[in-house]
Design goal:
The protein is of the alpha+beta class. It contains 19 helices and 21 strands. A hairpin with a 2-residue loop joins strand 14 and strand 15.
């Protein structure tokens, strides 16, 4: 029995973080809708600076210079540097976020989808940031399905070439004139209407301040008691007003990212960012469909800035040149170091992957796409993701052990009891079942702060994701990657002096 997938994601979301303006609750949705859907109000709306938080993921990859796997890499100038992926995420105030979300979900996305639906090949090729029904119409597809589609196409063709491209500095490199042009074309207007133009200005000529600066100042200049007193008044915000923020001394920066000596890029993380990134790529996507898919029998998929083209083996060079030229036309760059070429072919009745390096074919290679390594005859979860899972497992147990020692010191006791239920739920097969977990939220009602309890949905852990991927991919080898996870978990717990550690 198929599920009802007619409900699209709601444009309105209850956001819990503190910002420069007050938090907006679900009860305010109607009022916010009247504001966000009024072009006269939006064109005059004054957008606030963003909060910038930076996340960094250290990645271990094989280095040609070091001749081993390392977290170091070689940049375009040949310098050895860290290959850690720094992801700058911007947070807008609650009212600004709702305006972005309304325009993205209610105006831009429907028009964009209409264009894609007019061409079946184009519609199938763009996979990121969209709700696409699974073949059995019981759920929406996600990265596992999109990766499987590519791998299945390779299996079907058997003897073929595959090119994987990664756009360099995607969000920070988007050309503002190009974005404005394609945005106007989507609305069938010569220039952006004033309300859209105000939003365009807010995400191109934006200002921001660092979350780390804010946290550092909390220790000294930012008064925690004042923030608590604001909450008692029903103001869930960092400062009393904007003047208070200006006088705090926190540095505000302007967007200074440049491409070809021109200010470029849009912030990552806003409710409208992903939609605009897809929209920006529309001329490129159309060109690939028209010239490579329809004319050269290629198979094309784009997930955000990750591009994959499956083609005839003799067309690999031609396809590479066309993609490079097409991406240049929309003023973006594909780093040659991030372009990988492969040849798949049957060897002794088994599909094998060969990486093309200059004139050589490197055997025992794999195509890496959306978190999976595809060897032709088998599919595995990317090893870095497995390593990160075990690293997070170990760090979580270490944090709990530190908390135990703090309690021992405070209460002068030798007891060291660890509550393992949450650890097992997060890091073992015992947590693969979805369930409801108790949670609470602080709300302001009738002049008082009240703790309201509710149940949040726990959707499962990494083990559940891996098991589900193995089933969807029809790849039992994925489950074998994690067959020792329970033993490893118990070994980690036993490394600490915890009284109720499991005996192995």
């Amino acid at each position: 029995m198929s599920k009802d997938l007619s409900n699209q994601k709601d444009w309105f979301k209850d956001r819990g973080y503190l910002h420069l303006t007050n938090r907006i609750n679900k009860t305010d949705k109607t009022k916010v809708l009247h504001y966000a859907s009024n072009p006269a109000k939006v064109k005059k709306h004054k957008f606030s600076p963003f909060i910038l938080r930076q996340t960094s993921n250290r990645r271990y990859k094989y280095s040609e210079d070091l001749k081993r796997r390392s977290h170091k890499a070689t940049d375009d100038k040949g310098n050895i540097t860290s290959n850690a992926k720094v992801r700058p995420i911007m947070y807008a105030t609650h009212i600004d976020s709702h305006i972005y979300s309304y325009y993205s979900h209610k105006i831009i996305q429907p028009n964009y989808e209409k264009i894609l639906k007019a061409n079946k090949l184009l519609d199938e090729s763009i996979t990121a940031y969209r709700q696409i029904e699974s073949d059995d119409v019981v759920r929406f597809k996600y990265n596992v399905d999109f990766a499987k589609d590519v791998f299945d196409e390779i299996k079907k063709r058997e003897d073929c070439g595959v090119l994987a491209f990664d756009i360099k500095n995607f969000f920070p490199s988007l050309n503002h004139n190009q974005l404005k042009k394609v945005w106007s074309e989507l609305l069938s207007t010569k220039s952006l209407p004033k309300d859209h133009y105000n939003i365009f200005k807010s995400i191109t000529n934006y200002s921001y301040f660092f979350y780390d600066d804010l946290r550092q100042r909390r220790k000294g200049h930012l008064n925690e008691k004042k923030i608590a007193s604001l909450k008692n008044k029903g103001k869930f915000q960092l400062f009393e007003n904007y003047k208070d923020f200006q006088e705090s001394g926190i540095q505000v920066y302007k967007n200074q990212k440049k491409t070809d000596n021109k200010i470029a890029g849009i912030p990552q993380g806003l409710p409208i960012s992903a939609m605009l990134a897809n929209l920006y790529m529309l001329p490129f996507d159309k060109s690939i469909i028209e010239n490579l898919v329809e004319k050269k029998n290629c198979f094309y998929r784009r997930y955000s800035d990750d591009l994959v083209v499956v083609c005839n083996s003799e067309d690999i060079s031609e396809v590479e040149n066309f993609v490079m030229n097409a991406i240049e036309k929309i003023k973006l760059v594909i780093a040659p170091s991030k372009t990988e070429k492969f040849k798949f072919k049957k060897v002794n009745s088994r599909l094998e992957c060969f990486k093309i390096k200059k004139e050589d074919l490197i055997p025992n290679s794999y195509l890496q796409y959306l978190g999976f390594d595809f060897y032709g005859h088998k599919t595995l979860i990317k090893s870095a993701n497995i390593s990160r899972f075990y690293r997070e497992m170990k760090e979580s147990i270490a944090i709990k052990d530190k908390r135990i020692k703090t309690i021992q010191k405070k209460h002068l006791t030798d007891e060291a009891i660890i509550y393992k239920r949450k650890i097992y739920r997060l890091y073992s097969f015992r947590g693969i079942q979805s369930r409801k977990l108790p949670a609470h939220n602080i709300v302001y009602k009738n002049g008082n702060l009240i703790k309201e309890g509710f149940e949040r949905k726990y959707r499962g852990n990494f083990i559940k994701y891996a098991y589900r991927a193995a089933d969807i991919m029809e790849a039992p080898e994925i489950k074998r990657q994690l067959r020792r996870h329970m033993i490893i978990l118990k070994n980690y717990i036993n490394k600490f002096e915890i009284d109720n550690a499991p005996k192995i």
